[in-house]
Amino acid sequence: MHQFRTRKTFRDFLYSPVAIALLVTLAFFLVRIVWGSFVGYREAARARVVAEARALELETEKTRASVRAATAGSARAAEEEIREKLHMALPGEEVIVITDEEDFSRDEILADEETLLWQRFVDWVINR
């Protein structure tokens, strides 16, 4: 009989508000720990993707730097440096400037061409 009374007392304690509050509190903290681990894992995965992309960029830059270092003494490398940094060109080379259509209207372009044609005609008559 004593054994049944002990079971009933234990069961009464489990269903008491104090025990339920303890279990809810324990469940809350466990959920919080699991959620924190999940968030940490997700941030670590994102950081890993960023680090891998950065490592790939650095590897590409290393390859470019080694190619530049290998060709640093050549004439072609010197020519590239002059073209890129000083914006110079070889004699006889031409530069083509491409502009947006919004910069000039068609009427302005035609007016410039007509003026140019008219100027050419006047120059031809005078120099003849």
Automatic annotation (TrEMBL):
- Stretches that traverse the bilayer: 12-35
Alphabetically sorted, this entry's keywords are: Membrane, Transmembrane, Transmembrane helix
User: Which protein is depicted?
Assistant: Cell division protein FtsL
Q: Which organism is it from?
A: Candidatus Taylorbacteria bacterium RIFCSPLOWO2_01_FULL_48_100
